Amino acid sequence: MHTLRELEQLAAQIRTCRKCPLGRSRTHAVPGEGPANAEMMFIGEAPGYYEDQQGRPFVGASGRLLERLLAIIGLAREDVYITNVVKCRPPGNRDPLPAEIEACRPWLHQQIALIDPLVIVTLGRFSMAQFLPAHARITRVHGKPVVQQDGRVVVPMFHPAAALRNPNWMQSMESDFAQLPQLLEEMRHQRQNQNDDPPQQLSLF
Ligand code: SF4
After folding, report:
1. Distance CA 85, CA 95 (A)
2. How far apart are CA 56 and CA 51, in angstroms?
3. What number of CA atoms fall less than 13 Å from residue 166's CA on the CB side?
4. What is the C-alpha to C-alpha distance for residues 205 and 203, in angstroms, rounded to an integer?
5. What is the CATH code of the structural domain delimited by 2-193?
6. What is the model's pLDDT at position 194?
7. Among candidates 104, 111, 126, 110, which has minimal Cα distance to 20?
8. For residue 135, how far is its CA from the centre of ligand 1 (angstroms)?
9. Which of 110, 129, 173, 194 is the most exposed, having the fewest neighbouring CB atoms within 10 Å of its CB?
10. Whose Cα sits closest to atom 4 in ligand 1?
């Protein structure tokens, strides 16, 4: 309950945030949604038109694809936390600017700290860039889990909008998703043991 309250307080702050110019052009900020104790967190790039209208993440065609992919692994969107790197829509759906990403970053970091997910799935290159080195290329690293210093694992994936445009990437997304249940199980096991044992190497890597 404590985390839920803190997460709601954070969302309220995001909805009134004016730390970058996107705060003036948005209709609604989109803090994100999902259980406060979600084991898996999906991070996209920025809200689009429908997200901006409704104040909810991934509600258009990309959202429908995300829901279909989640269903493949037996999950519903209500089982995971879904958010974006930038919480307000860039005008005309342009890419978020570095200064906007920088201004918005603390909100994302606070969300991650509160939810404490085991697995973070980044959707698209802007989200991937928050966790992987700048030289990482999504076409090469997608679907490959990367262990972070905080013990979480980050799995970079294509953005659903990109997969909708490219059948090859759609196939990659489906196979990347298919490995998530096993990875999650591995991470649960890892966290269960981490208080008693010294850090272990994940067998998947
Ligand atoms: S994009 Fe982020 S930093 Fe910019 S106004 Fe919206 S919530 Fe604030």
Report:
1. 11
2. 5
3. 11
4. 6
5. 3.40.470.10
6. 77
7. 104
8. 26
9. 194
10. 20
Looking from the CA of residue 46, the nearest atom of ligand 1 is 1
With a 6 Å cutoff on the Cβ, whether 86 touches ligand 1 is yes
pTM score above 0.85: yes
- What pLDDT is recorded for position 202? 52
pLDDT of residue 193: 84
Residues 6+ apart with CB under 8 A from 198: none
**Which residue CA neighbors atom 2 of ligand 1 most closely?**
104
Dist. CA 121–CA 42, nearest whole Å:
5
- Give the tokens for residue 115: 């939810």
Within 13 Å of residue 83, how many CA atoms lie on the same side as its CB?
Answer: 29
| Contact assessment for residue 138 and residue 128, using Cβ atoms and an 8 Å cutoff | yes
pLDDT tens per residue across span 23-67: 999 999 999 999 999 999 999 999 999 999 999 999 999 999 999
What sections of the chain are H helices per DSSP?
2-15, 22-25, 49-54, 61-72, 98-115, 125-128, 138-141, 160-165, 167-178, 180-193
Angle between helices 167-178 and 180-193 (to 10 degrees): 40
